[in-house]
Amino acid sequence: MSGREGGKKKPLKAPKKDSKELDEDDLALKQKQKEQQKALEAMKAKAGQKGPLTGGGIKKSGKK
Predict the structure, then answer these.
(1) Against a cut of 0.85, is the pTM above it?
(2) CB neighbours of 30 closer than 8 A, spacing ≥ 6?
């Protein structure tokens, strides 16, 4: 018995994926997603600057 037989076997390397050629629709979709991501980050930054959204007002309890 050899000491190298035990343990976990290494998986075979997966073949490389072929690079897809992107057409105009795919490029437009990726550009739109990038713009949406930028807008979302801008909104997050803007929301983080302000305080809590709930104002004072009259708080009602559940009791009658």
Answers:
(1) no
(2) 22
